[in-house]
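Exercise 7. Given the encoded structure of a 276-residue chain, write a plausible sequence.
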């Protein structure tokens, strides 16, 4: 049941707008990065980090913390913005994004960035890693939950489907995979590159508890996460329907904004839209 109040939703909406500004600031200053897939996942990670996850910036390695695994590592501007906002490292570090010697590179490095659970680069590894953290919780008698965010284009990687099989085999009900289903990847739509068909039916066939939601609606996301916790013995998958480049009209649904530079013109236009 949805427990978000009007004040909760108002706070989350304001936080999401703030994070979008921070993402654009980083990408514009760096002159490179990935706007489309960062912007599409804003509401998902906003709800997770400001409502669901048990994490503490003063104890980033606490053994009882929930685990958030960013499988689509190119969306790290969003994760960096949140970690800085929550005090895992100084916000001034965001100005060094993608610069030499910065801790904040184009894909996260868990050995350099407090709050990052997995170093990434190649896609398709996050669910497997989440299986490992979930099994670790079981073996060590811990109650933490593992959340994995994947991209829909990332599901082209076969390792994901092996992981779907494995998680079901072990009955990992402390694992939730959230799919940022924006339906667009680097150089085209999913249907053009590699159609996913009935994605929910495919994952259910692996004996997962699957629910779909509006990935830009906080109440819908929370309800979906709650649904995944109602089936003991089965891992949960949330298919969050999103829009690539969400929040910036000229970026929305456009594959060219997967990794296009946010130049001065685009930056000014985007920030004006967010102000409005």
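Solution.
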């Amino acid at each position: 049941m949805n427990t978000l109040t009007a004040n909760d939703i108002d706070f989350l909406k304001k936080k999401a707008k703030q994070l979008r500004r921070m993402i654009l600031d980083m990408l514009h200053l760096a002159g490179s990065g990935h706007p489309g897939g960062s912007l599409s996942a804003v509401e998902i990670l906003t709800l997770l980090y400001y409502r669901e996850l048990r994490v503490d910036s003063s104890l980033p390695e606490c053994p009882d913390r929930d685990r958030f695994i960013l499988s689509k590592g190119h969306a790290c501007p969003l994760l960096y913005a949140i970690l800085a906002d929550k005090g895992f490292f100084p916000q001034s570090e965001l100005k060094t994004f993608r610069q030499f010697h910065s801790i904040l590179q184009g894909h996260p490095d868990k050995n350099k960035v407090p709050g990052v659970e997995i170093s990434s680069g190649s896609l398709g590894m996050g669910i497997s890693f989440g299986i490992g953290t979930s099994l670790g919780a079981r073996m060590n008698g811990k109650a933490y939950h593992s959340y994995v965010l994947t991209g829909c284009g990332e599901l082209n990687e076969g390792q994901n489907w092996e992981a779907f099989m494995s998680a079901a085999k072990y009955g990992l009900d402390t694992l939730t995979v959230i799919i940022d289903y924006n339906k667009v990847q680097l150089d085209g739509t999913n249907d053009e590159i590699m159609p996913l068909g009935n994605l929910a039916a495919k994952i259910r066939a692996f004996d997962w508890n699957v629910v779909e939601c509006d990935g830009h609606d906080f109440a819908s996301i929370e309800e979906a996460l709650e649904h995944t916790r109602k089936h003991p013995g089965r891992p949960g998958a949330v298919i969050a329907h999103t829009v690539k480049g969400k929040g910036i009209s000229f970026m929305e649904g456009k594959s060219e904004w997967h990794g296009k530079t946010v130049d001065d013109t685009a930056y000014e236009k985007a920030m004006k839209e967010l102000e409005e």
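Remark. The domain at 6-275 is CATH 3.40.50.970 (Rossmann fold). Students should compare their own answers with the one above.
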